[in-house]
Amino acid sequence: MLAAYRLTKLRFGDMMAYVSKLQYARIAPTKVHHVLDLVRGKTVEAGLDALRFIPNRSARMVEKLIKSAMANAEDRNERNAGSLRISTAIAGSGPTLKRIQPHARGIGFMIKKRYTHITIGLEPKIV
After folding, report:
1. Band of the pLDDT at 17, cuts 50, 70, 90?
2. Maximum alpha-carbon separation in the chain
3. Phi, psi dihedrals of residue 13, rounded to the nearest 5°
4. Rounded CA gap, 45 and 39, in Å?
5. What's the domain range around 100?
6. Residue 100's domain is classified under what CATH number?
7. How many angstroms separate the CA atoms of 55 and 88, rounded?
8. Tell me, what's the pLDDT at 127?
């Protein structure tokens, strides 16, 4: 698998954001957008519960990324890793592989195999 995980810790003002990225995921960005819209702004527990019942391949990828960002938060001494909120959920487009499928009368049909860069950011929940 060509995917690479990167874990970083970013600072936005006074808040800490724990970010996990999945790059070069072999799935179209539009398929991931639908799943990310469901979990953006929810707490980690509510987001994982919502993803558990979605039968998409992209839901498994996003679930894995959220767990990875939680592990990153625990590693960086976040005391309440379960009380984090999904603040950032972005699916950007990556490179596109272009293939040609032959059609009738010598015409070639372009097949675009799209890649996606998925970013999940967790922040402490504001009370």
Report:
1. confident
2. 65
3. 65, -125
4. 10
5. 4-124
6. 3.90.470.10
7. 22
8. 65
Q: For the chain, give me the number of helices (H) and strands (E)?
A: 3, 4
**pLDDT band at residue 14 using 50, 70 and 90 as cut-offs:** very low
Count of CB atoms situated within 10 Å of the CB of 31: 16
Structural domain total, the chain: 1
Rounding to the nearest 10 degrees, give the CA dihedral for residues 8, 52, 39, 71.
Answer: -20
Q: How far is CA 56 from CA 28, 31, 36, 102, in A?
A: 12, 9, 12, 30
- Please give the structure tokens belonging to residue 94: 């990556």
The residue behind tokens 């998925």 is 118
The two tokens of residue 10 are 């970013």
- Rounding to the nearest 10 degrees, give the CA dihedral for residues 37, 43, 44, 45: -110
